[in-house]
Each structure stands twice: as structure tokens, then as C-alpha cells.
């Protein structure tokens, strides 16, 4: 890259602030690197006194005064926005002109310790920087970190006040303990404090009983939406309807109908039970009559059997009397009155003439 020619200043050097770097993944021409906040914080102090160039250049200490367009006079981490900043002094017209044209800044650093690749927020990287040192700051039209920017002292002051007020407002509304209310903190996956909330933001909630739970904003939105739907259904059950000359809610109407249905079913069940009892009584009565009939039949059969036995015994006794007549002197034997005997008795009484008349 062509080095801009050194120009004399037509005005005094000017002081500016520059937002130049944040932790995370950054892409370079031949690799993607990860550098976290702790590593950058260790590098911060190395930036003080380093040169400011228009476009990136190799640092040549022998020609530092002739090639540089300013110097870094302060380097710090800004808690208001989570970025790393520098305070720089620009010494010639070419640098001041770049700022006036809306250019931004890009830092340069070297590293001597790093680890292998991996993923960060599901984004792959080739290596992770562990230690490093800043070498220079360049004024460029298209910075690697898109939100890098240059601020005048007054603009920086206003920026800081705005960020601090916003950050204080978030902390007061989300993190400040309030009597009788649930306390909670807002954080992302790494539990870093944030100045904005989206559906993926995690909320750490501390309940009144001391328990802590972590809930995603999107999950809370779904839960509240479902609760509202249930509330709508409840409201619908309170809708008033006309019943005769009166009004009652749908909920009371359902209760009344259910009660009536229950009574009707109970009456029908009682009636069925009464019918069953009557049937059982009739069946029992029939069984009793049947038993009586059977008993009567048994008595009749017994009487018939007795009569048969008497007749049988009578014939048997008469036969025995006749059989034993010669042996039993006191037995009376009935004689048979024959017709010839009757004639003989008549002739003896009245004579033969009487028979001839």
C-alpha cells in the first residue's frame, strides 16, 4: 500500500476518541480468530504511545516521526457499551481530513500464544488468541469491526451519558431488589450483562422462597400467551344468557343443567329399582305357590297311596280269614243264599200248591 505523503499541519493537533474493538470472532484474509475480553484487557496497556497511521503500515521506529499521523494517548475498556476504546491525538492535516470524511479506525496487533480452533456461539474459528500486543492504529474507510467509529470529545461525552443512563435504567428495572416482587437478572448464554433484550435472552429469576430459575424470554412469552387464552375461555363462561325472565351465566347454566340431569337419572334409577323389587316379590310369590302345589300334590299322592294300601290290606285280610277259617273257631263265615235254598224254604212254609198258583 502506498504511504501517504507527510504533510505539515495547518492547525493544532486535535484529540479524538475511537471505538475500535470488541471481544469475539473476527475474520481475516487467511483465517478466523477468537479473542475474548480477558485477553484484550491484558493487551490494553500496550496500546498507549503507539502510532496512528492513515491506512495500515509496518511500524518503522527509525522513521516513526515522519510516517505517523498521531499517537494513542489512552487505552481502556468502556463498561458502558462493552467495547475497547482509545483516546488519540492527530497531528497533521491528512489525518484530520480522513476524520472529516467520516473514516473509521482499525487496530493492529501481534500475538505469541494461541490455542487451536473450535466454535463460538456455533460459529467456527481457526485459533484463539491467548496473549498479544497492539502495534498501531490505522485510519481506514472500511474497518474490520463494522461498528468501530471516531468521536470528538463532546460527542464521546454525550455518547457515554446516553449509554450510562440506558444501562442504569435497565439495571434498575430488571436487577434492583424490590420488596414484595420477584428479583431477576438479564444475561446471554455467557451470563454477561446486556443493554438490550430479545426473545433469546435468558432471565435469571430469584423467587421469594430463595429458589432461582433461568427462563428464556420466548418461553415466558408463550406461557403468558397461553394464560391469556385460558382467561378468554373463562370470560366466555361468564357470558350472560336469557333463561325465561331471568339471566344467568353460561357457567351457572351448565351447572343447573347438570344438576337436573343428575336428578332425572336418579329418579329413573329409583323407579327401576322399585320395579326390580316388585318383580322379585312376584317371583317369590310364584315360587311359594309352586311349593304349595308341589306339597299338595305330594299329599294327594300320599293319600292315594294310603287308600291303595287300605284296599290292598282289606283284600289281604279277607283272604287270610277265608284261608284260616278251619283253624279259627270264632271266625264268622258269610254263607251264600242260593235260589234253590230259598225255594225249599217256601215249600216248607206254604206247601207246593202255593208255588203253583
Name a few traits of the molecule.
357 residues; 16 strands; alpha+beta; 3-stranded antiparallel beta sheet; disordered C terminus; 9-stranded mixed beta sheet
Q: Which helices and strands occur, and which strands form pairs?
A:
Layout (H helix, E strand, L loop, with lengths): L13 E8 L2 E4 L4 E4 L1 H7 L7 E4 L9 H4 L2 E9 L4 E8 L2 H8 L3 E12 L2 E3 L2 E3 L1 E14 L8 E3 L1 H22 L8 E5 L14 E5 L5 E5 H21 L2 E4 L2 E4 H74 L15 H12 L1 H5 L1
Parallel strand pairs: 3-10, 4-10
Antiparallel strand pairs: 1-6, 1-11, 2-3, 4-5, 5-6, 7-10, 8-9, 12-13, 13-14, 15-16
Q: In brief, what are we looking at here?
A:
The protein contains 8 helices and 16 strands. With 357 residues, the chain is α+β, with helices and mostly antiparallel strands.
Structure report:
With 357 residues, the protein is of the alpha+beta class. The chain folds into 3 domains: 14-152, no CATH class; 175-230, no CATH class; 240-298. Helix content is 43%, strand content 27%. It has 8 helices and 16 strands. It has helices spanning 37-43, 64-67, 93-100, 153-174, 217-237, 250-323, 339-350, 352-356; strands at residues 14-21, 24-27, 32-35, 51-54, 70-78, 83-90, 104-115, 118-120, 123-125, 127-140, 149-151, 183-187, 202-206, 212-216, 240-243, 246-249. The strands form 4 sheets. Strands 1, 2, 3, 4, 5, 6, 7, 10 and 11 form a 9-stranded mixed β-sheet that branches. The longest helix is centred in the last third of the chain and has 74 residues, at 250-323. The model is unreliable at 321-335 and 352-357 (pLDDT under 50).
Amino acid at each position: 500500500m502506498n504511504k501517504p505523503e507527510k504533510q505539515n499541519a495547518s492547525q493544532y493537533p486535535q484529540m479524538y476518541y475511537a471505538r475500535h474493538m470488541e471481544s469475539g470472532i473476527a475474520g481475516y484474509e487467511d483465517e478466523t480468530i477468537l479473542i475474548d475480553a480477558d485477553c484484550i484487557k491484558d493487551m490494553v496497556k500496550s496500546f498507549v504511545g503507539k502510532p496512528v497511521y492513515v491506512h495500515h503500515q509496518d511500524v518503522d521506529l527509525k522513521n516513526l516521526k515522519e510516517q505517523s499521523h498521531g499517537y494513542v494517548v489512552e487505552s481502556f475498556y468502556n463498561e458502558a457499551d462493552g467495547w475497547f476504546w482509545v483516546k488519540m491525538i492527530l497531528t497533521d492535516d491528512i489525518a484530520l481530513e480522513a476524520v472529516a470524511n467520516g473514516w473509521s479506525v482499525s487496530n493492529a496487533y501481534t500475538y505469541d500464544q494461541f490455542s487451536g480452533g473450535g466454535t463460538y456461539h456455533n460459529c467456527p474459528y481457526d485459533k484463539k488468541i491467548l496473549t498479544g500486543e497492539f502495534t498501531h492504529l490505522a485510519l481506514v474507510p472500511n474497518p474490520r469491526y463494522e461498528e468501530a467509529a471516531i468521536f470528538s470529545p463532546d460527542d464521546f461525552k454525550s455518547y457515554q451519558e446516553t449509554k450510562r443512563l440506558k444501562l442504569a435504567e435497565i439495571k434498575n428495572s430488571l436487577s434492583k431488589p424490590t420488596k414484595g416482587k420477584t428479583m431477576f437478572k438479564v444475561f446471554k448464554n455467557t451470563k454477561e450483562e446486556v443493554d438490550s433484550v430479545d426473545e433469546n435472552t435468558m432471565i435469571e429469576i430469584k423467587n421469594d422462597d430463595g429458589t432461582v430459575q433461568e427462563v428464556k424470554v420466548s418461553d415466558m412469552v408463550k406461557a403468558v400467551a397461553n394464560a391469556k387464552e385460558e382467561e378468554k375461555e373463562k370470560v366466555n363462561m361468564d357470558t350472560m344468557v336469557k333463561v325465561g325472565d331471568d339471566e344467568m351465566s353460561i357457567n351457572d347454566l351448565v351447572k343447573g343443567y347438570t344438576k337436573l340431569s343428575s336428578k332425572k337419572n336418579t329418579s329413573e334409577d329409583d323407579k327401576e329399582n322399585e320395579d326390580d323389587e316388585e318383580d322379585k316379590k312376584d317371583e317369590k310369590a310364584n315360587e311359594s305357590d309352586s311349593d304349595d302345589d308341589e306339597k299338595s300334590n305330594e299329599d294327594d299322592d300320599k293319600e292315594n297311596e294310603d287308600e291303595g294300601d287300605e284296599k290292598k290290606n282289606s283284600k289281604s285280610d279277607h283272604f287270610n280269614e277265608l284261608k284260616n277259617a278251619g283253624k279259627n273257631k270264632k271266625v264268622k263265615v258269610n254263607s251264600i243264599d242260593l235260589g234253590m235254598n230259598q225255594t225249599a224254604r217256601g215249600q216248607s212254609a206254604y206247601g207246593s200248591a202255593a208255588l203253583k198258583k
